[in-house]
Amino acid sequence: MMAAYEDTAPAGLHASIGTSFWLFDLDNTLHPASNGLLAAISARMTRFVAELLDLDRPAALIVQKQLFRDHGTTLRGLMNDHGVVPAAFYDYVNGVDYGVVAADDRLADVLGQLPGRKLVFTNSSARHAEQVVERLGIASHIDGIFDAEAADYRAKPDPVSYAMLVERFAVEPAQAVMVEDIAPNLAPAAALGMTTVWLRPSDLPDPHWAAPEPGADYVHHVTDDLVAWLESVARG
């Protein structure tokens, strides 16, 4: 399946659709998994589950991953199944070293060149997103953050969260581009009329839950290098 999704040339994209809005996923999209930030947060999630449910680490990891699969985020699963308060969860799991996120001058430069408003659409917290965009050096180019709380903890790909974002920021879907590393999260965006971009992880096995389903038509563009792809868009 994945071989059918080849890198697509974005030249002239913003001119052809009149792009006024860019919706970016945050983790593994605007910053890479290779910096270790998400691994550190995931480890703290596992420890949170272990302490909450009195489990050893291997058992807690299984529960954590199942909560993620069933509810879209570990937090939503903990809220639904165990009554966890979001603030307590975020205070614990976000207690990591954000210094591992390095400034990305190329990303900052190309965001400054792109037309339209740039929004971060994340299943995580606004505080987490703010720290990441500050460390990346792109905060001045980000016009808004739509986080888990803003979505009433309805995680992507719940279509309700997309409708809430569109309403909050007065997004015109036909003039919007959404970029994501988890392809199924693009399906509601495409259904609304947005142009979609899948940032395909370089080490993604086939098949994989982050890849498009067989026959899916909601991935319009694919790239392995977001900054280079955006630079091509900016060049027109």
- Which CATH class of the largest domain applies here? Alpha Beta
- Under the CATH scheme, the architecture of the largest domain is 3-Layer(aba) Sandwich
Shape: globular
Count of all domains: 2
Count of alpha and pi helical runs: 10
CATH topology term of the largest domain: Rossmann fold
Strand order of the largest sheet: 3-2-1-4-5-6
Alpha-carbon distance between the termini? 30 Å
State Rg: 18 Å
CATH superfamily of the largest domain: HAD superfamily/HAD-like
**Which structural class do you get from the secondary structure elements?**
alpha/beta
Oligomer designation:
single chain
Q: Work out the helicity level.
A: 40-55%
Order of helices and strands: HEHHHHHEHEHEHEEH
Secondary structure tally: strands? 6
Mean pLDDT equals 90
- Beta-sheet strand percentage? 5-15%
Report the major sheet: 6 strands, parallel
The low-confidence runs, each spanning 5 or more residues with pLDDT under 50, are none
What does this structure look like?
The structure is a single chain. The protein has 236 residues and is an alpha/beta fold. The chain has two domains: 2-31 and 102-235, HAD superfamily/HAD-like (Rossmann fold, 3-Layer(aba) Sandwich), CATH 3.40.50; 37-93, Orthogonal Bundle (DNA polymerase, domain 1). 43% of the residues lie in helices and 11% in strands. The protein is globular and about 55 Å long. The mean pLDDT is 90.
